[in-house]
Write a structure and sequence with these properties.
Blueprint lengths: L6 E5 L4 H12 L3 E6 L2 H11 L3 E5 L5 H15 L4 E4 L15 H29 L2 E6 L12 H21 L4 E7 L6 H9 L16 H10 L11 E3 L3 H7 L3
Parallel strand pairs: 1-2, 1-4, 2-3, 4-5, 5-6, 6-7
Helix pairs in contact: 1-7, 3-4, 4-5
Bound molecules: NADP nicotinamide-adenine-dinucleotide phosphate.
NADP nicotinamide-adenine-dinucleotide phosphate binds next to helix 1 and helix 6.
Length: 249
């Protein structure tokens, strides 16, 4: 996949799947805009990637910060062709009767509203350009309940609907909106899940998780026409046929 001449804005690029995606997209020729709250981490990664990377500190839970991040991406790189809605959180993990309502809402603000904020800020730019690709990291948690994860499951179910909505409203104007369900991935998020000890996911061995470059390479594949059949839908990295197409199996 050659992304020369394309610009990708990747949220949650300070570590994990987002950081891998930034490196892999840049290697494929893209100019990248790295978004996260951790300014030092994205600045360091941008330095490592080189002049085609810019670090944009931003809390995606606040719309005005996301809107500014898109504006900063445009002034640094001149366009926005690919949005990767990757940033997400799972803490605090808690049963519903004990969950702190404000902290529960904070997760919705990031995982669900943050995805809407990204789409809302990027869509006018992409529509003006005649099209663009919006990739959102989903989860198996969008499809079924997982103990202790009422906030996370609800937010991922909603985020999947946002992909379907973007596809419904804008496919005919050149917008490619797709979701990626990555399976379990060896990142900080899985460390937090393990520490909670609450559900079967927390009991998995580290070796059960795929490395973060697997979803990152799949995101790159999803930028191409071969993934067009998944527009408005989800690509599952548990699917062996997808792994084979991406070159992971
Ligand atoms: N790991 C898995 O097994 C797994 C499975 C299914 C889906 N996912 C999804 O994959 C995505 C990436 O997760 P990961 O596993 O790579 O986790 P991670 O290593 O914990 O990374 C999460 C990223 O999101 C950023 N972030 C969190 N809140 C943010 C906010 N308010 N504004 C901007 N950035 C924010 C973090 O940066 P800062 O803290 O610096 O802001 C960090 O870069 C998430 O959407 C997650 O739900 C992960």
């Amino acid at each position: 996949m050659d992304l020369t001449g394309k610009t990708a804005l990747i949220t949650g690029a300070s570590r994990g799947i987002g950081a891998e995606a930034a490196k892999i997209f840049a290697k494929a020729g893209a100019k990248v805009a790295l978004v996260a709250r951790g300014a030092d981490a994205i600045a360091e990664l941008a330095g490592e990637i080189g002049p085609n990377a810019v670090a944009i500190p931003c809390d995606i839970a606040r719309y005005w910060e996301m809107e500014q991040a898109v504006a900063n991406c445009l002034s640094a790189h001149g366009s926005l062709d690919i949005l990767v809605n990757n940033a997400g959180v799972i803490e605090p993990i808690a049963h519903m009767a004990e969950a702190d309502p404000d902290a529960w809402g904070d997760v919705i603000d990031i995982n669900l509203k943050g995805v809407f904020h990204g789409m809302r800020a990027a869509l006018p730019v992409m529509l003006e350009q005649g099209g663009g690709t919006i990739l959102t990291i989903g989860s198996g948690a969008a499809h079924g309940p997982v103990e202790g994860w009422s906030h996370y499951c609800s937010s991922k179910a909603g985020a999947l609907m946002l992909t379907k909505m973007a596809d419904k409203e804008y496919r005919d104007q050149g917008i490619r909106a797709l979701s990626l369900s990555p399976g379990t991935v060896a990142t900080q998020m899985q460390r937090e899940i393990k520490a909670s000890g609450i559900n079967p996911v927390s009991k998995l061995d580290w070796s059960d998780h795929v490395p973060p470059d697997w979803p990152a390479r799949t995101l790159l594949w999803m930028c191409g026409a071969e993934a067009d059949g998944f527009m408005g839908d989800e690509v599952s990295l548990r699917d062996q046929a997808i792994r084979a197409k991406v070159g992971l199996a």
